[in-house]
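queue> pop job 88
queue> type: inverse folding (structure -> sequence)
queue> payload:
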């Protein structure tokens, strides 16, 4: 997935500053696409060079001027071409350091491993709460007749389902670790 096309998609809703684009990332699509401010500004500069976006300067009192970016006709054409060109194989994460550590966890103390799973579980529960709040906001937009919300909901549901699955998995793993700890503590029967 291309950051430039994601930015074009967001700008297709309305003109925004780089800072506003970052805020939209955080409050809407952060569950499947993340970008740092520096990446957003760098990409906006490249997109402006390509003619995909333009900007208006808005002067501010006592602050630097704002650049408000808009998608151009050329940008919209490029975005539409990208949108219609679905990948043959959906993307999937190929690197997961947490799972790599789990794979080699026979070299760890079980209590340390349990601690890491509890921390992971807390993070996943926080993420699920974030998604559920986002889902409530999405429902409010839908109630006001926003035609984009069914599509936002489709993307959000994968985040929710994946996170719920990760929570279930972590709980199962904690049960397994607890069972392993109990077996270690139970003295062997005399022969």
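queue> result:
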């Amino acid at each position: 997935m291309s950051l430039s096309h994601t930015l074009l998609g967001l700008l297709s809703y309305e003109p925004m500053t780089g800072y506003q684009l970052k805020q939209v990332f955080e409050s809407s699509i952060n569950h499947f696409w993340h970008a740092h401010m520096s990446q957003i500004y760098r990409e906006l500069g490249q997109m402006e060079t390509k003619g995909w976006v333009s900007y208006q300067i808005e002067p501010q009192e006592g602050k630097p001027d704002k650049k408000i970016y808009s998608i151009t006709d050329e940008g919209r054409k490029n975005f539409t071409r990208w949108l219609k060109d679905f990948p043959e194989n959906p993307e999937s994460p190929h690197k997961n350091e947490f799972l790599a550590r789990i794979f080699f966890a026979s070299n760890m103390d079980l209590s340390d491993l349990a601690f890491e799973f509890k921390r992971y579980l807390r993070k996943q529960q926080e993420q699920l709460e974030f998604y559920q709040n986002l889902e409530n906001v999405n429902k409010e937009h839908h109630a006001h007749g926003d035609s984009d919300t069914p599509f936002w909901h489709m993307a959000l549901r994968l985040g929710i389902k994946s996170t719920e699955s990760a929570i279930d998995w972590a709980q199962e793993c904690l049960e397994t670790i607890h069972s392993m700890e109990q077996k270690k503590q139970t003295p062997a029967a005399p022969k």
